[in-house]
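@channel sequence for tomorrow's demo:
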Amino acid sequence: MIQVHPYLFFNGNCREAMTFYHKHIGGDLQVMTYADIPGGEFPPGLGHYVMHGALTQGSLMIMASDSMGQGQPIVFGSSVQLTLSVDTVADAERLFKALGDGGSVDMPLEETFWAKRFGSVTDRFGIKWMINFEGK
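structure tokens (generated this afternoon):
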């Protein structure tokens, strides 16, 4: 079996973003900063940045870290979106509202020909989400 797990990179606000996702998606959040590395070898002044974070809930796993500059700023785009398929209309409405708070609505949450509820938002961290409840 092969699974795909998104790995998100942030411009220094990874902990804030992952804590936000944990609050609204639930599950288990693990965060390791550069200061947590055994031996303490990390670039000066960057110990508080996230080296690796993982949010797991059931089969969902979202991993992330801060980019640490690596010569290139993080550029958020439209080539990838994360889809959350949920069990109820209430779950769809709750997540759509929460993830869109401080962000922007790309497509309102509404009934479509394939789903009882579908909508997309860009969250305050620049990550694009699609919320889907098929309503089988």
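heads up for whoever presents: Residues 14-25 form the longest helix (12 residues).
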